Amino acid sequence: MRWEYRGNTLILGGGLTYRTIPAAYHSVFQSLKRHKPSEIDLGEVETIDSAGVAFLDEIHTRLASKGILLFKGARPEVQAVIDTFSSIKLPVPIPQRSMGWFEKLGDDALNAGQNIYQCLLLASEIYYFSLVGLISRKGQRKGSFVQQAVLLGSQALPIVALLSFIIGFILSLQSAVQLKNFGANVFIADLLAVTMVREMGPMMTAIIVAGRSGSAIASEIATMQVTEEIDALRMMALNPIRYVVVPKFHAISLVMPLLVAFSILVGEIGGGLIAIGYLDVSLPTFVQRSIEITTLKDLVVSFGKSTVFAWTIVIIGSFFGFQVKGGAEGVGKATTASVVASIFAVIVLDAIFSLLYL
Amino acid sequence: MSQALISVRNLVAKYGERTILNDISVDIMPGEVAVILGGSGCGKTTLLKNILRLQEPFSGSVKFWGDEVLQMDEPSFSGILKRVGMLFQNGALLNSISVYENISIPLELHTKLPEEIRDRIIRVKLSLVRLAEAIYKYPSELSGGMKKRAALARALALDPEILFCDEPSAGLDPLTSAALDELILDLRKQLKMTIVIVTHELASIHRIADRIIFLDGGKMLFNGTLEAALKAGIPEIDTFFRVGRF
User: Fold this and answer.
1) How many domains in chain A?
2) Are B123 and A93 a contacting pair at CB < 8 A?
3) Going by DSSP bridges, is the β-strand pair A70-72/B84-87 parallel, antiparallel, or unpaired?
4) What ipTM was assigned to the predicted interfaces of this complex?
């Protein structure tokens, strides 16, 4: 690209293209400030593309306000490209106004309120159709309960076992050193039983289920929503909650306490290894003390809260699934949001249970 | 005779043991609108994807502007791709960003143009595809036809010399489809582009094709003008045009 001034005329030449504009851009505009041309001669421009035309338009916009600016002498083929790509007559779009922080705070609060309302509405529907579903299986596919129980329960066993074993093992290991100092070796069984039954069993299982099954529920329903499968169910006169959510709700209500029981057992085994191997507690003593310290109330609260966690995970997963907007990206967002919200809700609920049933 | 812009020789494409394209040889000349057509599953999209290296062919040769691209290293092939635009079947807009940002991506990453120039180019390209009002919208807020036009604006961002379109009319009503065809022809005239279109929409073929490349069962049955194809007496082509599609 070439440029020079002859009197009040800026003469542009060569190629005005994507490749040449960036290098010349700032120098040309610097020179325009000094020379203030009244016309621009394009007679020597050989090639031009949309970047070149945008460059001419930018010159026009900046200088036209300071006086009449004339483009002249362009070859027909160059003029045709200018006519095609000129942005001079296009309206400048107004960007969407972004909210101020106070406005955004209010907007977020309103949205949160609406979401909680929608979630409660969905929860009420799920509870209603789950109760109805206990009496009548109408609107559900045969075998869906068993299928979901396998998916949400049996297939989660390996990961629950592995993590519970590690938690029981670490818990005992950390406590063992302190207990040994005081000669209170045998109390490892008490500590482990209370911790696993009351807290770690239900909570760790719920977090694993939220990450594994909650995300699966959210992504499944969100995908069905995006691909119009939910609408298709409605058009077949089937209630999507009854068809999709209720089997999951029933299945998780059954398998969650079982998973927690399994988690407690495996955690006890992991901790028992330390008790027997490191603290020289005998197996019968360990088992006896573990049983003695565990009260019926502990077990009822443990399984009770695990069921509440399970329901929360299904409701939150379903809520984010049904609320999905957009395409594949929306599915990802719904899944992530469901996992975060489920884990948050599980921890908050666990704190409430701990306060209520100390 | 001018040199072919794209030259495909003895191209073979396979999925596992199954042969999808069998010995395809074709030249695309500058400034023409070449339509690759045939029934569903005949290998049209596979041919397009193999030419553009979106899929690796089993064997054969593909040349752009006389340069073999199948063995080309990535940086050199990137140089070729900057001169090429592609309109995907479903638009393939990036959903997480606005239409403006979608068109801005190639301009930002492949040029050093100042922001005000990029902004003008984006507005012009959207205006060319008659979608100026959707500039700050997100793809999820657009209809199917609007998504296609936004994707076309993105494909045109760098003033490509060759535009590939994979079933641009698919899923559009006849009026929108005709408008899109008109738009493509208009752009070809204004930008002097070479256009390669995959389609099986008969109305589109009649409107836009300078030349047709007819595929059937992975083989090229015909390569020439539409008039010649209709007079060639090839049963598959006659059936295709008589019935509408396979």
Assistant:
1) 2
2) yes
3) unpaired
4) 0.82
